[in-house]
Amino acid sequence: MKSNIKYKRVLLKISGEGFGNENGRGLETETFAALAKEIQNISTTGVELAIVVGGGNIIRGAKFGSAGKSRVQADQVGMIATAINALLLQDILEGFDIKARVVSAIEIKNITESFVLRNCLQYLKEKVVVIFAGGTGNPYFTTDTAAALRAIEIGADVMLKATRVDGVYSDDPLKNASAKLYKKLTYMDVLNKQLGVMDLTAISLSMENKLPIIVFNMNKRENIKKAIMGEPIGTYIGA
Q1: DSSP percent split of the chain into helix, strand, coil, nearest 5
Q2: What is residue 185's predicted lDDT score, i.e. its pLDDT?
Q3: Distance between alpha carbon 126 and the CA centroid of its chain, in Å?
Q4: 1 confidence band (pLDDT: 50, 70, 90)
Q5: What pLDDT, in 10s, does the model give residues 153-194?
């Protein structure tokens, strides 16, 4: 099994909405458990897995900040929201006998570990799932940018961006039934077409460091495993 995987070290990006209800809000135990089962399913492959979680199911800093509130403070609250998701995911993973560590870009003393790259690399070598919380630790940066940054820092072979649709479309497929699914795109395609799958900073970072991205539907069983095995799913974004 181990010799068949295409990507040996993977960064999985999960938006906060992925932990919520059908509207992407709140905290749904079933969604955490479903993800844990998928991760358990790939644990025998030998993959080294890191996860960046968003917090949009609890609060979106940019939206809250645009409502006349302090954007900096709103983003800080959003960072705390990612830690809530990360800690819940850790607890559920450990219930499946999967070792996991929550590493935060913001200090949450006695609850999470602070980000130290050397420690994270050691955890990955030991096949411990590393869950990154707190975004980049700075306001005005999305968790997509945090995912690209962490993927590059840990030397990930690929970034997997989990969504609720099958990949990147020409338009919102939930609103436009005629939207076209792209199987493969270049970084420049994403930028020029303004597809909005990730923010410009995340795409630019990925392009500069030649980090491939696979956008896929997290609600379809075994899609994470298929991705790390190199099976063609979702949309591949690369050079």
Answers
A1: 40, 20, 40
A2: 97
A3: 21
A4: very low
A5: 999 999 999 998 999 999 888 889 899 999 999 999 999 998
Characterize the bridge pairing of strands 235-238 and 184-186: parallel
Is the pLDDT higher at 14 or at 196?
Answer: 14
| SS3 category, 175 | coil
pLDDT at 68 over 80: no
- Split into its structural domains, the chain has a count of 1
Any residues with CB less than 8 A from the CB of 133 and at least 6 apart, and which? 53, 79, 82, 83, 85, 86, 87, 102, 103, 104, 105, 106, 112
Residue 150, domain CATH: 3.40.1160.10
For the chain, the average pLDDT equals: 92
Q: What ranges make up the beta strands (E) of the chain? A: 9-14, 48-53, 100-104, 113-114, 129-133, 158-163, 168-169, 181-182, 184-186, 213-217, 235-238
Q: What element of type H or E holds 201?
A: helix 200-208
Q: How far is CA 144 from CA 33, 93, 123, 152, 218, in A?
A: 23, 23, 22, 12, 16
Q: Are 89 and 35 in contact (CB under 8 A)?
A: yes
Which strand (E) or helix (H) includes residue 8?
none
Mean pLDDT value of segment 140-150: 96
Print the domain residue range for 79.
2-238
